[in-house]
Design goal:
- By secondary structure, the chain is of the alpha+beta class.
- The protein has a domain of 192 residues.
- Helix content is 50%, strand content 13%.
- It has 13 helices and seven strands.
- Strand 1 and strand 2 form a beta hairpin.
- The C terminus is likely disordered.
Length: 294
């Protein structure tokens, strides 16, 4: 997984007409992010010699410090979050589906964070025995940046058939409004597991110390928090819901869902539960093969 692929083929919703693309953005993304990092530092590192403000003639040291602090706060407040553009498409005859296109700056930062620790996402995907939709990097340049493990509807149906061949009972479950109800703070829970995430939440004041001692989970928790912040920056700091459309949301949603899969397996494995999940749709299958009616 590369940031170029994610931005080039995973930014705009697939429903947008072909003339709309992000090829130029992807091609220059390294320079864009480097320029932004320099710009951010020059406007927020008030003790740096490269800070954009200079002391005025006759200005007291204290007034200059106050002016620098005010500039930093205003800069961060102005640029640390944005509102996604809305793209509406038809959903049936009487309803619409609203897709979101995040601001390119904030989407690029989120993408950079995700690809920087892609192996951690793979670790969570591998926890699921149910998912047929977890993302796999797609090498074909004419397709999305990630594809699902089931390459087609027929492929998924074959997997479902193999899973259900000796089962008598099937329970279908649909997670209602999955993307719009994901709590961004649950990203840490998804990446680390609930108990570990709760532990490090209580140790937030000691994270730097723990990281210095080589605590990999503490470092992963700090990273998960940064992804949470980056995701919220794409949607005016809102913590409820993630944008519908970008591949980053597919990745985050599957991370949460695969952790849910792991929890379901542990809780119901004693009754022989098998299941297939495709995005937010579950086919739960019980291992019962005979049914006695009295």
């Amino acid at each position: 997984m590369t940031i170029k692929d994610l931005i080039e083929r995973g930014y705009f919703p697939k429903e947008l007409p072909p003339p709309f693309d992000t090829f130029d953005l992807a091609a220059d993304i390294a320079n864009i992010l480097a320029t932004w990092t320099t710009t951010f530092d020059n406007n927020t590192q008030i003790n740096s010699s490269n800070f954009v403000l200079k002391q005025n003639v006759g200005e007291t040291v204290q007034n200059f410090k106050n002016r620098k602090k005010a500039h930093r706060e205003n800069f961060i407040s102005r640029y640390n979050a944005s509102k996604a553009a809305i793209y509406s498409i038809s959903k049936g005859k009487l309803s619409r589906r609203f897709l979101q296109i995040p601001n390119p700056k904030h989407f690029s930062i989120l993408s950079e964070k995700i690809v920087s620790r892609w192996t951690n996402y793979i670790d969570v995907f591998n926890l699921s025995d149910y998912s047929q939709s977890y993302p796999i990097p797609e090498t074909a340049t004419n397709k999305r940046s990630v594809s699902t493990v089931s390459k087609s509807v027929a492929d998924f149906r074959n997997s479902l058939l193999k899973t259900s061949i000796d089962k008598l009972i099937e329970v279908r479950v649909d997670i209602s409004k999955f993307y719009p109800t994901i709590y961004t703070h649950s990203i840490a829970w998804a990446l680390l597991g609930k108990e570990k995430a709760k532990h490090y939440f209580k140790e937030k004041d000691n994270l730097d110390t723990l990281i210095k001692t080589g605590d990999a989970d503490a470092e992963l928790y700090r990273y998960a928090e940064s992804v949470d912040i980056a995701m919220r920056a794409c949607q005016e700091r809102q913590s409820i819901g993630i944008p519908i459309g970008p591949d980053t949301s597919h990745i985050i949603a599957e991370t949460v869902a695969c952790r849910i899969d792991e929890t379901l397996k542990k809780r119901f494995d004693s009754i022989g539960l098998k299941a297939c999940r495709y995005y937010d749709d579950y086919w739960a299958l019980l291992i019962i093969t005979t049914l006695t009616i009295k």
